[in-house]
Design a protein that fits this description.
- The chain is α+β, with helices and mostly antiparallel strands and about 475 residues long.
- It has 4 domains: about 130 residues, no CATH class; about 100 residues, no CATH class; about 120 residues, no CATH class; about 60 residues, no CATH class.
- Helices cover about 55% and strands about 10% of the residues.
- A 6-stranded antiparallel beta sheet has the order 2-1-6-9-4-3, covered by helices on one side.
Length: about 475
């Protein structure tokens, strides 16, 4: 038996022709051990060199990258090693054989047995070993004692959650977890016990981990006889917005508490506060949730709430808060998709104040007559953005267009968009001043393109004179 069993990607033939996948270092066959070994060069271990090993998942990645296979390895006894939760670096290592799909359960059991005999193991490898044990066999001889010892070492939420899910209906699970978590009493565990926090061995142990994911899953999936208030209390204390939201969405009524809603409010997490307003049952939603969303000043989720929340949950404070963000993208989006009764003139005013040319143009193109205001056209004119001014003249409805748009485009002196306006704008928006402005740019290319592409009625004497002047230059 070996301590710190782990995995490594190797190429070649086992046992006498192996090489490390990445460095291509050959492993030498040790006739005394009857196994392949690799030793770091003398004096290099202190410099950070050595033989590295890791988890199955990481070793498999290397195997895929280097066309190798995964092998079970261990630090050579009485040689130095630096061990972490996911692997180690050793002065020397021994290879015990390949890992295959067929022998994975046997290797997992080897890890568990070594651990049960007092040989320390890599935490993530021990975690993998427990996962390989068939769930139904967790509490069956001979696996019960092996899993129990692993739980004692790992003490992590996934296995405690599974233990509560897989309880076979007698006291074996509860007693096993009780033994694992109470063998080494602490002040913390004693306090939990005497304060009444300890209700069920499994539920108490899971609550003590503070792992929001598995606390939520326990509340969603565990049978009533295994669920205790310690689970919901522990979830509240995590302040994990995602799992608080999911608990409000998925937990049965008997398990949900108002404290879950309050804890979600206190996170200030705009995404999950919005999702609660969208997805939670009416009896779980509170006005404080809407107020919390308002206070985030998160334009995206304020906008989404205005589109997705029910009438009972939406308040005009959400619209006002969105206007105060001055976020042009979501102000435009609200004007485009919100129901009529939720839209406020303040949203249009706030968009105009952003002076964001692109979203002002989009609003003029897409917003309804009731929502568009002349201030939007004026604000776009004041941006001096030639491209968006041109697009507004091409795409906006007549009721949205303003002569200020044409005047602003002329002031830009941008030959490209003056030319495009003359080519694409409807007749009632085009004016001779656009021609004059194009000629004054002295841009031979776009003057000549205007002569080629503009409608005949727009090719005035001013443009013809410019064409005669610049025709040889382009």
């Amino acid at each position: 038996m070996f301590a710190y069993l782990a995995f490594k990607a190797l190429t070649g033939r086992y046992p006498d022709a192996l090489k490390s996948a990445h460095q291509k270092t050959p492993w030498k066959f040790d006739s005394t051990l009857g196994l392949p070994c690799l030793k770091a060069a003398k004096g290099t271990f202190r410099e950070g060199h050595g033989v590295y090993a890791t988890t199955v998942e990481e070793a498999q990645k290397y195997a895929e990258d280097y066309q190798a296979a995964v092998y079970l390895v261990a630090p050579l006894p009485r040689k130095r090693a630096v061990v972490g939760e996911a692997g180690w670096r050793a002065e020397a290592a021994v290879c015990l054989g390949p890992l295959t799909k067929e022998n994975a359960p046997q290797i997992a059991r080897l890890v568990l047995i070594a651990h049960s005999q007092g040989l320390p193991q890599v935490k993530d490898v021990l975690h993998w070993a427990v996962e390989q044990v068939c769930l139904e066999a967790w509490w069956a001889t001979p696996y019960r004692d092996l899993v129990l010892r692993a739980l004692d070492e790992l003490r992590d939420a996934p296995f405690l959650y599974i233990a509560g899910t897989a309880d076979p209906g007698d006291e074996r699970v509860s007693n096993a977890v009780h033994e694992a978590f109470w063998k080494r009493p602490t002040i913390e565990s004693a306090w939990c016990y005497w304060s009444g926090y300890y209700c069920s061995n499994v539920a108490w142990a899971l609550a003590l981990t503070g792992d929001a994911k598995y606390l939520y899953l326990a509340g969603r999936n565990w049978r009533d006889e295994y669920f205790y208030k310690s689970i919901s209390k522990a979830l509240v204390e995590t302040r994990n917005a995602m799992y608080l939201y999911l608990a409000g969405r998925d937990w049965p009524d008997k398990r949900f508490t108002p404290e879950i809603a309050q804890a979600l409010v206190e996170t200030g997490d705009a995404e999950h506060i919005y999702l609660a307003g969208r997805d939670w049952p009416d009896e779980r939603f509170t006005p404080e949730i809407a107020q919390a969303l308002v206070e985030t000043r998160d334009a995206m989720y304020l906008c989404l709430a205005g589109n997705d929340w029910s009438e009972k949950r939406f308040t005009l404070k959400i619209a006002q808060a969105l206007a105060e963000t001055k976020d042009a993208d979501y102000l435009y989006e609200a004007g485009q998709v919100w129901p009529e009764e939720r839209f406020m003139p303040e949203i249009a005013q706030a968009l105009a104040e952003t002076r964001d040319a692109w979203d002002l143009y989009l609003a003029g193109r897409d917003w309804s007559e009731k929502r568009f205001t002349p201030q939007i056209a004026q604000a776009l004119a004041e941006t001096g953005d030639a491209e968006r001014l041109y697009l507004a003249g091409k795409d906006w409805a007549d009721r949205h267009f303003s002569p200020a748009i044409a005047e602003a485009l002329i002031k830009t002196g941008n030959a490209k968009y003056l030319y495009l306006a003359g080519r694409d704008w409807p007749g009632r928006r085009f004016c001779e001043s656009i021609t004059q402005a194009l000629v004054e740019t002295g841009d031979a290319e776009h003057i000549c393109l205007a002569g080629r592409d503009w409608p005949a009625e727009r090719v005035s004497d001013v443009l013809k004179a410019a064409l005669r002047k610049y025709s040889n230059a382009y």
